[in-house]
Amino acid sequence: MEDIHLNVSLLRAKIPNLTVAARSAGLRPATVSNLCTGKIPVGRAEVRTLAALAELAGCTMDELILRGRPLGMLETGIKVIDLLAPLVQGGSIGLVARQNVGQLALLAELFYRFNTSDYATVFWKPEAYAKGIDELLQEAEAVGSTSAEVYERILQCANSKEVVLGADRAMVLSGEIFDLEEKLKSAGIRPVTTILVDVSGDAADEELPFGPLDTFLRFDAELTTRGLFPAIDPVVSTSVMLEGAQLEPLHLSIQQEARKLMRRYRELRPLVLFRGEEKLPGSERTLFKRGERLEAYLSQPFFIAEPFTKKKAEWIPLRDTLQDVRTILDGRADHVPVEKIRFAGRLDV
């Protein structure tokens, strides 16, 4: 049977008080609630119920009923990812970077965080060696060198935990990753979240280095040179969760404003470096300073790097990230020195 579900985010955005609206339309609030949570499959719902919901939301039935697996956000506690390019649970995530810009360090950090969040982490060890592989081997809960080994490791974990798989682009080019996905699907294993890296760094200039992705994270070498980690490009990096009302309206609106600010800040930065900040008009200067603070805020210490940086790492919940970014966007952090925000956790105003 086709996997269909309600576009719950759309309903929440269009109908703020869904319970009251449902009752006024002659629908049982409990029925609507159970449809939204999945307790009642959409396929078992009465047509008149679905039609009434579509009318309340002012949308078509095609917009109300989504086909395929619903997208869920895999929260990482890493501010720049959760805000601007959320990881899709059970999806494919691609990390695109040149060598030594931080992609393997980010994957090791994600493994560390997922291991403490009741996920199982599996690393498909590539034949090629690169700096950072050893750290990945330390943080992965299980390691396999062949497709058969990785399959067995996933089977061992999948009954009790959701699995996050790290793999190199070589497995995409060989087609082995797709064969593994089909094998897992045939075995009835829930979708595995796959994080793809490019150990060689050769794919940084390619338009689609991994093929279709659910989340695309591009690294910026210029951020690395300024010591801003994770060095994820806040303008180019993106996620399919930003489309089709997959995120909560508040999250979506804040990330859109934040990306717009970062885009303008990056346009102004070369001018400031060349001519000086004082040459900017007042309004542009304000935008530049807020962009500078937001860029600093999106940097963050890693748990795996604590012995080297001597900076305490933190898991920043999404709700706190949204609150802090809203504060920066509204100008309520204009008085806070950039140095106090850079490479820290929460915003202290």
From TrEMBL:
<keyword id="KW-0067">ATP-binding</keyword>
<keyword id="KW-0139">CF(1)</keyword>
<keyword id="KW-0066">ATP synthesis</keyword>
<dbReference type="InterPro" id="IPR050053">
    <property type="entry name" value="ATPase_alpha/beta_chains"/>
</dbReference>
<dbReference type="InterPro" id="IPR027417">
    <property type="entry name" value="P-loop_NTPase"/>
</dbReference>
<comment type="similarity">
    <text>Belongs to the ATPase alpha/beta chains family.</text>
</comment>
<keyword id="KW-1278">Translocase</keyword>
<dbReference type="InterPro" id="IPR024034">
    <property type="entry name" value="ATPase_F1/V1_b/a_C"/>
</dbReference>
<keyword id="KW-0813">Transport</keyword>
<protein>
    <recommendedName>
        <fullName>F-type H+-transporting ATPase subunit beta</fullName>
    </recommendedName>
</protein>
<keyword id="KW-0406">Ion transport</keyword>
<dbReference type="InterPro" id="IPR020003">
    <property type="entry name" value="ATPase_a/bsu_AS"/>
</dbReference>
<keyword id="KW-0547">Nucleotide-binding</keyword>
<keyword id="KW-0472">Membrane</keyword>
